[in-house]
Amino acid sequence: MTSATLSSFCSVYGPVQSWRYGRSLGIDPIGPVSTCSFDCVYCQLGEIEHKSRDRQIFIPTSQILQDLSAFQPWDVDVITLSGSGEPTLALNLGEILALTKSLTGKPVGVLTNGTLLNCAEVRAELAIADQVAVKMDAVTDEVLRRVNRPVAGIDLTTQWQGLKAFRQQYSGQLAMQTMLLVPWNEAEQQAYIDQMRDLAPDEIQLNTPTRPRPLAHQLDARGNHSASDRPYAIRQLKRVSVPTLQAFGDRIQRETGIAVKVAIGE
């Protein structure tokens, strides 16, 4: 990425209306080249351009704070780190979180796929956030490979161990985000329920994709778009029916006692 490309990139976007968090201002610590340890088949950004689990500084913290200052007085419910890939890949994650909270006085959240939670440094930095939502779309490595398409070296066992370690030290609001493209069978549902009972997150967010997937990477897909106003080629995705999603959500809540939010939009 050239310095000219970076200088023209705005790391703050929105506000975005989120069914999970209300009016949210987004911070993108990754930059114009999408970078992630997953390449999910339903990713609203399209194909991930750089697949990696190596941390680095993509956007200087000073630029993020400058971009953020232009949006004051920050008339939003929350400021959320997400954007063009996996935010925990940003080596300045902790600095961004701490300074954003200090500058804005707003709750700060992070949307993460949880693949770096086996690193103690990442867990400590992420714990600065007021709320963290972790993606968990699979209960088997086969589904993980098929749906999330992780980079080499990532498996469910390692991911789960990191998530449990984070849960033990995190005092903020922890949510699990699960996307269903097809209905799960009985064994998959029961395995998921057992895992959630063991983890005891504050909330589970159950979803199925309605946002189409761009055929190529699109930076503006970070924000809210309907299928009809996309100015580029898209592909609609498989989804489960609302009654099926709701029935699974009701079962999870009944058997675990954990609050479940069910929605049909990412």
What topology does this entry show?
Elements: H1 3-7, E1 12-18, E2 22-27, E3 35-36, E4 50-51, H2 61-69, E5 78-81, H3 93-104, E6 108-112, H4 120-126, E7 131-135, H5 141-148, H6 156-169, E8 173-179, H7 186-199, E9 203-207, E10 213-214, E11 234-235, H8 242-256, E12 259-262
Parallel strand pairs: 2-5, 3-4, 5-6, 6-7, 7-8, 8-9, 9-12
Antiparallel strand pairs: 1-2, 10-11
CATH superfamily: Aldolase class I
Q: Name the CATH architecture.
A: Alpha-Beta Barrel
| Helix proportion range | 25-40%
Strand adjacency order, main sheet: 1-2-5-6-7-8-9-12
What do we call the CATH topology?
TIM Barrel
**Average pLDDT, all residues:** 90
Distance between the termini: 29 Å
Kindly name the structural category: alpha/beta
Biggest sheet character: 8 strands, mixed
Q: What best-fitting shape do the alpha-carbon axes yield?
A: globular
Question: Low-confidence runs (pLDDT<50, min 5 residues)?
Answer: none
Can you tell me the CATH class? Answer: Alpha Beta
The H-and-E topology, N to C, reads as HEEEEHEHEHEHHEHEEEHE
Tell me the number of helical segments per DSSP (H or I, 4 or more residues long): 8
Compute the number of structural domains. Answer: 1
Strand content: 15-25%
Tell me the Rg in angstroms: 18 Å
How many DSSP E strands?
Answer: 12
